[in-house]
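Slide 14.
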Amino acid sequence: MRLEGKVAIVTGGGRGIGRGIAKVFAKEGAKVVIASRTVEQLDRTLKEIESMGGIASSIVTDVSQSSDVKKMVDFTVEKYGKLDVLVNNAGIGWFGYAIEDEKMEEGYDRLMATNLKGLFMGIHYAVPEMKKIGGGSIINIASVHAWNSWNRGSVYAASKGGIVAGTRALAVELAPYMIRINSISPGSIFVREPEEMIAKRFGKEYVEEYKQKFGDLPYERQKHAQPLPIAGTPEDIGYCAVYLASDESRFVTGINITVDGGATAKLAVSTEVPPELKQREQEMHQWFEQLRKKHES
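Slide 15: predicted structure.
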């Protein structure tokens, strides 16, 4: 196994890309500490890893709070004796007009506290532990939004651009200690879990109806978000992270790997969708609107 004997932290490990990374790490032999703000999500990821025969622990962590980040690193070293790998995956989005939005300052501060401050605090507390064992690997999850964003995405893009730039600068600082640091920029990744949202917002009785009518639609739609006609998954990011965490990449530091199915290789990303999928999308939106009105009345 490619990560046997290694101890790794994955922040934001309760869902989405973080869950995918944590599961692949465990599959490849790492002992994984998953960190997230949400107990329910941590429990789910932990159970999935344990059902695979993997070794994992969890800790409730808000990376925007430096005291939480320190506790996370201390917990890991106390539990497993060392820290080899840190995956800074935790992140949030805020999409508003940076110039005109009245809540711009609030949104900016909240996003940067998680996406950048949280990342740097993780590195701040992890590096001393990695020095003790003669090196380590830090993997920062950025985004293709660092280069190609959309309307109202400037603050989010700035945070992800900061991750890429900071990673390159830190590679020089950390190299003398044999600590490698790299970033991964995911493109459009299929991480949505609409069943959970429906159950929480409208009731569990609507989940089965959704699955029968539209269960495969989000995944099918995702296949048309990039040149490669497949949907990117959290596990795709996970296997890229495995390479960067493993000794296979011992001479690799300061780089960014884009995992986007070729989306940024095009001058403009086409989202050409077959007519039948467009029709089903319209039907799904109408279904959600009917549910919303029903529960508001």
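Speaker note: The chain has two domains: 7-189+232-265, 193-228+267-297.
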